[in-house]
Design a protein that fits this description.
By secondary structure, the chain is of the alpha/beta class. The chain has helices spanning 2-19, 38-50, 67-78, 92-99, 126-140, 155-171, 188-200, 214-222, 250-262, 290-305, 332-336; strands spanning 23-28, 55-60, 83-86, 106-110, 119-122, 145-150, 176-181, 205-209, 225-230, 241-247, 269-270, 279-281, 315-316, 322-324, 345-346.
């Protein structure tokens, strides 16, 4: 009996230790963290997770998509990380491959669409914030030409450009959005040069789907306006910066980590939006008029309430073909697979 009692006591201690086990969470970023941009925004989310009880986090920055990312993901899995967040689209296939080798590890891929039993994917409805940013840009443009420095022609980026254009057209029907592709997520010099080419074409507001503030700086030097992305970029172009479409990853990352800790996590495709405070706008620059702020605030409230859907017809593509009939709202699947530009966008999807 005494031996049995000792056995039960040992089991209780072991169980207690298992319950108290520190959860190791890893984050992988495609660009340097820096002090602005995409990876910076994810890093702010990691810091929120790092402050949680019973959680330890670490990260690797500037990891290229492809073989390099597979090496880093595999290394984290081998070290026994409980949760691994891969935050770039090009990490999808490498993460899927590694996930099948480590079934007890939770893998989370940002902006992709593939899953396994222990790999989910997630993103935010950034197109909602893009629409509001477009309203600001359209309101402030005098030339009716907006410039957009864009990374890669994938649905995520195309969807954002279309939403931005729809927002601009809401307040300035004759506006056009000119797109230049850089084919890079993070290259400050290339992004800045792309912005300059758009400025030379007459754009008086520069927007971006890029990680660096290079386009913001180009706008400031030219004496025109800019719309940032990922994080508040006002410090880089205080005279140009109207607002930024920003990420707030803390709420979502803590939600996932808590689910893993509680044993309730399941692989899924998550796409939270403004209603969960995952996306939004940074504070407006002092040059944005009060009436513009009020229009944007009213539209934001409608989006959060669900009474305003960004992609609701009539919407035509560049060729004039009706993609969404009047009153028809795009499904999530249609938005996630968007590979066409709407009327008003100048540029190609290649």
């Amino acid at each position: 009996m005494k031996m049995f009692a000792l056995f039960l006591a040992a089991m209780a201690v072991t169980t207690a230790h298992a319950a108290d086990k520190e959860l190791n969470v890893g984050f992988i970023y495609v660009s340097p963290i820096g002090d602005a941009g995409y990876s910076y925004a994810h890093e702010q989310g990691r810091l929120v997770v790092d402050a949680m009880d019973g959680v330890k986090t670490s990260y690797v920055e500037a990891v290229k998509e492809g073989p390099d990312s597979e090496r880093v993901i595999l290394n984290m899995a081998r070290k026994g990380y409980d949760v691994i967040f891969g935050t770039s689209f090009g990490y999808m296939d490498p993460m899927l491959k590694v996930s099948k080798q480590f079934p007890k590890t939770v893998f989370m891929h940002c902006s992709g669409f593939k899953q396994s039993d222990n790999m989910g994917n997630y993103f935010g409805r950034m197109y909602q914030a893009r629409y509001l940013a477009g309203m600001v840009a359209g309101s402030m443009s005098k030339s009716k030409i907006l410039g957009y420095v864009a990374a890669f022609p994938i649905p995520e980026v195309i969807r954002g450009i279309n939403a931005f254009t729809l927002g601009a057209q809401e307040v300035n029907p004759d506006v056009s959005v000119r797109v230049v592709w850089t084919k890079t997520w993070y290259d400050p010099a290339t992004e800045k040069e792309a912005a300059k080419s758009l400025l030379d074409a007459g754009a008086d507001v520069i927007a971006q789907h890029q990680d660096s503030p290079g386009p913001q700086e180009a706008a400031e030097e030219k004496g025109v306006y800019s719309i940032g992305y990922n994080s508040d970029m006002s410090t880089f172009a205080p005279k140009a910066h109207l607002t930024s479409a920003v990420w707030n990853w803390g709420p979502y990352y803590t939600k996932v980590v808590n689910a893993v800790k509680n044993g309730t996590w399941k692989a899924e495709s998550a796409w939270p939006g403004m209603d969960e405070d995952i996306v939004g706008l940074s504070p407006f620059g002092p040059m944005v008029p009060e009436d513009v702020k009020q229009k944007v605030a009213a539209k934001k409230a409608e989006i959060i309430a669900g009474t305003e859907k960004v992609f609701t017809g009539p919407i035509k593509d560049q060729a004039g073909t009706v993609k969404l009939a009047e009153g028809v709202t795009a499904t999530d699947e249609e938005m996630l697979g968007m590979t066409w530009f709407i009327q008003g966008v100048v540029g190609t999807t290649k």
